[in-house]
Amino acid sequence: MQILRHRRRPMIVVPKRIAVFMLILFIMGCAPASLRQGRSYLAKEKYPQALEALTKALNEDPDNPEIHRELGITYYKTKQYEQALEELKTAKQGLEKDDRVIFYTGLTYEKLKLYDEAIEEYGNYTKLGRFSRVRGKIQQRLQWLAQRQASKWAQERMEIEKEIDPASIPDNSVGVTYFKPIGVSEELEPLHKGLTDLLIVDLSMVDELTVVERIKLNQIYDELGFSSTDLVEQDTAPRMGKLLGASSLVTGAFTGFGDDQWRVDPTLGLVKLGRFEALDSVEGQIERFIQIEKQLVMDVLEGLGIELTQEQRDEIMENIPTESLKAFLAYSRGLDYSDRGMYSEALQEFEAAVSLDPKFNRAKEHQAGARFMSQPTETTDELEMAWDSAFSSEALKTEFLATTVQSVSRGDVDPTSGSDLELTEEETEVQLDVLIQW
Questions:
Q1: What is the pLDDT of residues 3-14, one digit of tens each?
Q2: Span 165-320 CATH architecture
Q3: 59 backbone dihedrals φ, ψ, rounded to 5°
Q4: Exposed, middle or buried: residue 99 (CB in 10 Å: 0-12, 13-18, 19+)?
Q5: What's the DSSP call for residue 308?
Q6: H-helix or E-strand containing 11?
């Protein structure tokens, strides 16, 4: 008589931490099958099948933001950008801080040539995104997009120039053009870039004013074939004001006296009235460039009829980026190189400015921008590849950790209790399959 023996299935001893990990996988495996299937197809780049599965999932659970997210990404992958944007915007209502939603929404806006919106979304990613390598690439993309958008804006302004009615320009809009250097040394000439930059920053602190960004000023200069050292005069001011969308223009010149003295002669162009008003000249030692600039700001605001509160005045006067003339000259040279697309040279100057004054934060910001722009700008496809690489290697680990924390906080899992669990090979395979499907 043959005795039949039942062979016990081999057991796999799973450490407690892995058991919790597996439990998380099991919990996640409870998501709708059509959603898991859609994710799996999306990961395998089987987009038609992914769309079918995710559409089915959406019909079963139309309010699930994760389904809208996966569907939006799938539409993006299949170049259906309008549908992708619609799904991603819906997903964002429930996943406001989800970096996948933010990242692909930025890409989609860019594909649709909605650059302002793309810039906003990419900016959100730099604040929330978990992958530092991708963040760096997006910061570079932001710099490139800002240049591209400003160029597009300037070209559009030129195309509609005849249609622009000066009366439609808001009265509180101000443009600050470059001050013409007269009789100054080659070393001091770059001050015309730095001075304008400081004026724009300080005037922008006044809520009652809308100040044209310097990047847009550069593009209009380029479209008009102007050099940054050209003086905007009474005959060119109306056109410059129309194109910039500024009802007032701050312009003028500065003159050097010897090696350590200068005088700034500002003029306020009133575009709608078609006239210039000379403001009081300000002069002094070049080393006191900050005090000169602050006096210019106050004179301009008085000319514009703006009455500051004491709080506003204090805020402007206390905004002192640097008091080092050498650092400010290096910064001004950096701006000039950057405006000419010479980013490697600009980077060297911004680094010099920071070295001379480590507290010069504005120089640090431009230093980071020049560093990004000195590197080859990646396409959206290359950016997406960098994301996919980072996501595939890190995203699951991050999601599982977050889920563990949530489960423990709810009391669903006690990581300190119980012994190691035993799982059969079959049970382990099931859990791993859940991981793949998820």
A1: 444 444 444 444
A2: 3-Layer(aba) Sandwich (3.40)
A3: -65, -35
A4: buried
A5: -
A6: strand 11-14
pLDDT value at residue 301: 95
User: Do 11-152+389-437 and 324-378 show the same overall fold?
Assistant: yes
The pTM assigned to this predicted structure is: 0.70
Let me know if 43 is exposed, middle or buried by CB neighbors in 10 A (0-12, 13-18, 19+). middle
CATH number of 11-152+389-437: 1.25.40.10
324-378 has CATH 1.25.40 classification: yes
| 132 CB neighbour count, 10 Å cutoff | 9
Q: Kindly list the domain boundaries of the chain, sorted by start residue.
A: 11-152+389-437, 165-320, 324-378
Q: 420, 14 in Cβ contact below 8 A? A: yes
Q: What radius of gyration do the chain's Cα atoms show?
A: 30
In order, the DSSP letters of 63-114 are T-HHHHHHHHHHHHHTT-HHHHHHHHHHHHHH-TT-HHHHHHHHHHHHHTT-
Q: pLDDT by residue (tens digit) across 23-63?
A: 444 444 455 788 888 888 888 889 999 999 999 999 988 89
